[in-house]
Hints:
The chain contains 3 helices and no strands.
Amino acid sequence: MQTEHFRQAxxxxxxxxxxxxxxxxxxxxxxxxAKVRSLLSRLAGKLLVHLQMEVSLRGAHATKQSPSH
Length: 69
């Protein structure tokens, strides 16, 4: 099974979380709340896509392993 795509997605998610973490001080949020909201929205989108890929992969993997009746 190819895992490189998932590893890359995990790296992108960690990078996004790191970027957001740096802006989670009250002063930064007050200064540029729109940027923080935008980064959180982008992270949520990436998470949804990634989770859908994992669910799809697990479903395909389970189908291949289930015995035929």
